[in-house]
């Protein structure tokens, strides 16, 4: 083989780079190679808003059932690790390059979405109280950086001083720089076409140019692109919940026309996606995001509709003065969403093959926890968390079908309100409710499985039934056959 290492990490996003740093911090002898193109074209990390919090992501559905509190617990565990994690990175940097979390998050609820927004805001506030987290109710009309249109006035707001944001591009640069300074980490700007397995053990990878690299351990941490690599082992791939991309579009804007808020301003999550969020990016710049489009293949360019939607939301719901802002850049990221929306973290039945993916919207925030957990397991040490979400498992039903259908209907209604729907005042509010129910019911019936497709995927199927129904039906049948 062309080269030999102790650990090969497939993926140079935040999880891959963080794990490389965790490995060399724990073992002074370990030799690591990180494989991935510098552009990270289909990754999630370069386009991440990097809101550093777990309570701001809470929804009525996210904290429900057996797995909701477990996922929230992972976020709380990760939050405790960030200060020492950043301190260790900063110790290696010149002062000008040191990283810090920008504190504070305002969460505002307005009437531009459906009832799902009020419900999620209420559950978020109640969960903050249950966990005795610091927050305060604030007058939404007195938040710096907010001057929404008259029909988009917020109805409630709260401020969380212990949640904030981090510049994702600076974090990636810092993680890469820390690894580069170590003679034990090699960077290979390439892609992996296949895993090499001998006698039930992963012994290396084959690169796109045909070369092979050998290793004692292989970590698959390349976001949604992990699926292509995993598919080189079809028997194993059928036993791991499939990864699909959640395309998110973001903008960076610059303005000096009005004071910007030094903290995050966001809404609760709503309508199949994360909430509208405006994240500080320096003195006169902000990052704006709000979208999530679940797809079969990752995207590398924004759509006109998503850019228009972001601009409209930002000017209508945050500050009308953004109409004069300069558009500095657009970005597209592909969040790795497992078919059951839960993480894939840990080892597999192929000895020496590890996976860290499926983190959806939480990958960057969870990175200190996931990276140090994976480093410990790979080095034969203890991990940092219970192995609740092993990669090799049947897709988990987080909800009953009836619960999922009810939640999906809420999202459909919210999407309509967010995009300015006007329902004729002749009883059509009931007509639309019946239409949503029929649509959702037939999606589940046509797929025909006891596995419960999460709400995030239902509209994808409905928009292209001819192609999507056979796709998901065949997928679930393959899962049944594998188990």
TrEMBL record:
Cited Pfam families: DAO
Domain FAD dependent oxidoreductase: 6-376
InterPro entries given in the database record: FAD-dep_OxRdtase, FAD/NAD-bd_sf
Keyword terms, alphabetized: Oxidoreductase
Top-level lineage group: Bacteria
Name assigned to this protein: FAD-binding oxidoreductase
